[in-house]
Write a structure and sequence with these properties.
alpha+beta; Beta-Lactamase; Heat Shock Protein 90; 2 domains; five-stranded antiparallel sheet; 9 helices; 12 strands; disordered N terminus
Amino acid sequence: MPTSPPDPQRPPRPILEGDDDGAVLRAGRRLAEVEALSGIGSWEWDIESDRLYFSEQLCRVYGVEPDPRPLTLEDSLARVHPDDREEVRAAVHGALARRASFETEHRAIHPDGSVHTILGRGHVLAGADGTPARMLGSGQDVTDERVAAAERTAEERRRAAGQARDDALSLIAHDLRSPLAVVMGYIQLLERQATSGTVDIDRLTPYLERVDAAARQMSSLLDDLLTDAAIDERAEPVELTPSDLVPRLREIAQHHDPTSSIHEVVADVPSGPVVAEVNLPKLERALHNLVVNAIKYSPDGGTITIGLRADGETTRITVADQGIGIPKADLPLVFDRFHRGSNVSGRTSGLGLGLISVKRAVDAHHGRLAVDSVEGEGTTFTIELPLHA
């Protein structure tokens, strides 16, 4: 049956002057009361005789009846959960060999079948000859604390999962904004031409083709952007195919050039082919994002250059603008979720998620994304990709 802690109201046996036995009893009773209040029991092991004593509180911790008779070390280990016994034995013997302290967290099964988590500690005391003579230690039932910690962890994971969903929706909204801006840009262009009576029928078909391409890009985003926006940062494998990047980058420049009357978007690419193994939808989305950002953060206009160079086994794609730049203090943080530069936060719309999408696309190619910027002069993003996967 479970035992009760010592009654703190019980009067101690009268102690007479010089009554050493009474002083010892009183000290022992006070120690038992302190252990009962703290929930921490103690033990002492005489190594040479292999006599080990559990305090009353430690017996309660392990769910056994107090017994003044000494135990052996193996007797005490029998009170440990079978699956944890070897670990505790190794900790004790390791402390003896090192003449040091040890700490373990193990389980014990109470008579009612409940499993309790015990935090155990021990320390080696040397004898007069310097060899280990005794070990003193303690044990504390930390089951409630560990259960509470596990519940907090589970709650934090639930909150993180909810935040991940919110992040995914935000990232989808951000990435959809890029092709949507193209569609709206061409609509506004056609409206201006229609109002002024300057609609060029010969150029109408290319305009509609670009609007159609942007619509298809949005459809592609809806198919797989949830995967890209997953909170798990591990890069998932993507299908890579050999592709000539030269015409693709020219198309991207032509795609964005007419969308702003104060910007010129140009492609600085080699005359010959540059073939790399890439996933075109992912790479194109990343480049569209970078170009849209370049336009957005160049409010006074200027030239935006999409560059391409092949160097040995590496392909380098750059997107350079002549915009407001990024403050030096913000450069190490530009790829952090929700971070926005101090010179744009609160003044320019955005969520600080676009570069996360770009970085994940580059990571999926086993590439590298870098940024170089001078505030007030402009920014250059560089994507380095291996020519061969």
